[in-house]
Every structure is written in C-alpha cells, then in structure tokens.
C-alpha cells in the first residue's frame, strides 16, 4: 500500500515539475521571443487580382484571425482586402494586425456593428460559437459595394492560394460551400430543419457569397423572418439559418476546400486523401490547436502563428490550457 502511494506521489511530482518547468521556459521565451516578421514586404504579382475576404471577430479572436491572415498572405501574391465585422476591436489589436503588412501589402476595413436584429437570434446550443458569428448574415448590407466575398471562420489556415476560391463561379447560386460532416453521421438536429429533400447541410465556416444575388432576392429579410419562424429548431443559428434560407441554390464544393479536422466518420483512405490534398485546414468544433496538444495538422497553425505579433498571447493560452489539463489528470 505504502509503495503504491509513494509511486503515485512520485508520478504527481514529476508531472508538476514538468508543468512548472514548461511554464518557466514559456515565460523566458515570451520575453525574448524573436520577431519573425520580414523587414521588407514581399511584392504582389503584376496585375494582382483584388480578392475580398470577410471575417467576424472581436478582441478575443483577433489573435487567431492574425494566424489565418498570415496563412493567406504567405500563400498568395494577389491583393487581399480584409473586411472585419466586429462588435468592437481595440487599437492594440488593430496595430498588431496592421504590422502584418510587413509580410505583404493588404487592405483592412473594420466595420463595427450594432444591429438589433442580431439580438433576436438564439444562442448556439452547444456554446461552440460567439454570437458575433451571426454578423455574416448581414454581409449583403454591410458590404454594399461588393458583389462577391469569401467569408471565413478564423480557426483555420490556408495551405494553398486563396485565388482558387475567388475564381469559383457562383453565378446563379447564393453561395458555394462544402457539405458538413454532420451529414455523414446523420445528426438528429439536421432532420429538424425545414430543408429541401435530398439537400446536403453545408458548413458555413468557409463560403463564397454571391452578395449581388442576395440583394436581388432580398435574402437578409428572408433569413431574419426564418430566425423567428424556426427559432425552436435552431442548433447552430447562423449556419442553420443559411441552410434553411439558401438551399437548394447552393453550389457544393469538394471537401478539400474546407478540410475540417473532425474525421471520425471517414474511412482511412478518405482521411489520407483529404489530409494530403486539402486547400485549407479548418479546426472546427472544440478541439482547437491553441487549446489541445496533438491536434490534427496543428503544426500548420503554429507554423504561421510564429509570425504573429500576438504569438506570446497565443502561446500563453496554449500552455495554460495544457497546464490545466495536466492538473486535471493529476488531481482529477
């Protein structure tokens, strides 16, 4: 008995020493963290295309947006216009994002939103998304001068040129997107949604929106009417409402265009194919690379994160999360 208790004690102390050693190293590293941003921005391609990308973030998610932004800039030579939809972004966050122009020139538009219609939309039932994700429902009116935009979640990283997305033809469709993995494991909540027969529920984390057609068909009003009409069956409100309101006029894309890392439903061959051929990596769900060690393709996230002025903050979130997991494993 005493030997067993001593063994447990030793194991716990080893783990605790590992935690404190890691934290001490992290603190040292954060204070002396090298700045990997180049001194001179890379040149854009001659006759570079203007590509418009929209995201919804606040100060909490600005650091993760910076990683997605870096991944876009490092994989293209086109001229990117970023449109940030937010309920508020600090000057500190904006300055750090602006520093990324050292990688490559880009445009940044910040649109602060106070739209009371958003308040009528219910919360995400699984608490996996912040209410600001609903701002994408206002894209057509918030971006009145654009006919087309790529709308992105920020828990992702590009490994290919975003130009491939921009050149996807969405004429005649409200948007282009990838079918969600929820179709594969036949999630019960999908069948509660009033969608057309045989339609595939799509993931709204990566979309090419045809804003011109949204305006022509008054889609925003339709979305908010449906938010009242179908309130009781909404699980992931923004995504559910887009599926309810826009299907069947949705162009389905190959899963390489939105490779989500939750692959339990896939066979090994499909996993291997997507893992090798993906155009971007999307850490959808709760297993984020900045929270959980050993996440699939997490090395891609950290590859870009090292260039971010937010890197010390991102690393601190990761190591404190790991420390909490270790403490939980030790003390239960």
- Secondary-structure arrangement, i.e. CATH architecture of the domain at 50-259: Alpha-Beta Complex
- SSE sequence, one letter per element: HEHEHEHEEHEEHHHEEHEHH
As laid out across the biggest beta sheet, the strand order is 3-2-1-4-7-6-8
Instruction: Look at the structure and give the CATH class of the domain at 50-259.
Output: Alpha Beta
Name the structural class: alpha/beta
> Low-confidence parts lasting 5 or more residues at pLDDT below 50?
none
The mean pLDDT is 86
Our count of helices gives 11
Give the fraction of residues assigned to helices: 25-40%
Largest sheet: 7 strands, mixed
The fold-level CATH name of the domain at 50-259 is Spore Coat Polysaccharide Biosynthesis Protein SpsA, Chain A
What is the CATH homology-level superfamily of the domain at 50-259? Spore Coat Polysaccharide Biosynthesis Protein SpsA, Chain A
Query: How many strands appear in the DSSP assignment?
Result: 10
Strand content: 5-15%
Question: Which outline best applies?
Answer: globular
Computed Rg: 22 Å
Distance between the first and last residues' Cα: 20 Å
Give your account of this protein's structure.
The chain has 332 residues and is of the alpha/beta class. It has a domain at 50-259: Spore Coat Polysaccharide Biosynthesis Protein SpsA, Chain A (Alpha-Beta Complex). The chain is 38% helix and 14% strand. It has helices spanning 2-31, 59-73, 91-98, 139-142, 163-166, 211-216, 219-229, 237-246, 268-277, 298-305, 311-331; strands at residues 50-56, 79-86, 106-112, 148-152, 156-158, 175-177, 206-210, 250-252, 259-260, 280-282. The strands form 2 sheets. It has a 7-stranded mixed beta sheet. Strands 5-10-9 form a 3-stranded mixed beta sheet. Helix 1 runs antiparallel to helix 11. The mean pLDDT is 86.
């Amino acid at each position: 008995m005493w030997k067993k208790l001593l063994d447990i004690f030793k194991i716990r102390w080893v783990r605790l020493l590992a935690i404190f050693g890691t934290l001490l190293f992290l603190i040292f590293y954060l204070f002396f963290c090298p700045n990997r941003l180049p001194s001179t921005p890379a040149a854009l391609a001659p006759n570079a295309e203007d590509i418009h990308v929209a995201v919804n973030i606040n100060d909490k998610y600005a650091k993760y947006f910076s990683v997605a932004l870096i991944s876009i800039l490092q994989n293209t030579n086109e001229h990117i216009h970023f449109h940030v939809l937010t309920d508020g972004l600090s000057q500190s966050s904006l300055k750090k994002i602006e520093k990324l122009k050292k990688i490559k020139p880009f445009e940044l538009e910040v649109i602060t939103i106070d739209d009371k219609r958003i308040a009528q939309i219910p919360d995400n039932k699984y608490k996996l998304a912040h209410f600001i994700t609903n701002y994408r429902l206002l894209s057509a009116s918030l971006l009145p001068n654009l006919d087309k935009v790529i709308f992105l979640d920020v828990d992702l990283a590009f490994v290919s040129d975003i130009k491939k997305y921009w050149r996807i033809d969405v004429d005649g469709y409200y948007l282009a997107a990838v079918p969600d993995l929820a179709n594969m494991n036949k999630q019960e909540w999908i069948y509660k949604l009033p969608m057309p027969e045989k339609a595939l529920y799509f993931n709204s984390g990566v979309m090419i929106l045809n804003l011109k057609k949204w305006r022509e068909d008054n889609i925003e009003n339709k979305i908010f009417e449906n938010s009242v009409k179908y309130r009781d069956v909404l699980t992931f409100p923004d995504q559910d409402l887009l599926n309810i309101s826009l299907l069947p006029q949705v162009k389905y894309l190959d899963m390489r265009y939105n490779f989500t890392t939750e692959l339990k439903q896939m066979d090994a061959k499909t996993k291997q194919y997507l893992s090798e051929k993906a155009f971007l990596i999307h850490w959808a769900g709760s297993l984020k690379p900045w929270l959980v060690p050993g996440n699939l393709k997490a090395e891609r996230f950290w590859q870009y994160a090292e260039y971010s002025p937010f890197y010390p903050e991102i690393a601190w979130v990761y190591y404190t999360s790991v420390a909490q997991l270790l403490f939980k494993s030790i003390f239960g």
